[in-house]
Design a protein that fits this description.
This protein is 28% helix and 27% strand. It is an alpha+beta fold. The strands form 3 sheets. A 5-stranded mixed β-sheet has the order 5-2-3-6-9. The chain starts with 5 loop residues before the first helix and ends with a strand.
Length: 168
């Protein structure tokens, strides 16, 4: 069977995130669910729909650390500690990035931003609580689609720094 190009894989239902995982030969599982636009939290909705504990489902947030867009991956059960994020990458100050800029830079829409397969590779920090789980779930690149993979695989593919950046 011939290997499909990224464009062919995306056209056949893959996303840049799943294409990146397939290309890297990483073991992963795709979980899809019907996204409810009225749900107040994308991450909590994903955890509920998949029947997975919210501390195993991680959200991808984009922050501005001293003028550099930086990806933070934290459990949906908590929030991002911006000071800890800045410290993890050697910065002084972090603020949440403008949503439009985050979408344009990553190539994904809010609620579907994945740390994998982004249009522009950004520095990434994964909350160190991920290491307490055999697998975690992250966005696969669109609302209603998650991938489950090992924290080690995510760390390797994104060159992530592991740090205590989550609160709660």
């Amino acid at each position: 069977m011939a290997k499909k190009s990224k464009k062919q894989q995306q056209q056949s239902g893959g996303t840049p995130a799943t294409v990146a995982l397939s290309s890297a030969g990483v073991d992963f599982t795709v979980h899809s669910y019907a996204h409810d636009p009225s749900h107040p939290s994308y991450g909590e909705e994903a955890a509920e729909a998949m029947g997975v504990s919210p501390d195993r489902v991680f959200k991808t947030l984009v922050a501005d650390v001293d003028g550099t867009l930086t990806v933070a991956v934290v459990p949906v059960s908590g929030s991002l500690d911006l000071k800890a994020l800045a410290a993890a990458v050697g910065g002084k100050r972090a603020t949440m990035a403008d949503p439009t800029l985050a979408e344009r830079t990553t190539g994904y829409v809010r609620g579907g931003i994945s740390p994998l397969g982004q249009r522009k590779k950004l520095p990434t920090v994964l909350d160190d609580s991920a290491g307490t789980h055999e697998t975690i779930c992250i966005s696969a690149g669109r609302r209603g689609l998650e991938v489950e993979l090992s924290p080690a695989a995510l760390t390797e593919l994104t060159n992530a720094v592991l740090a205590p950046i989550g609160r709660g």
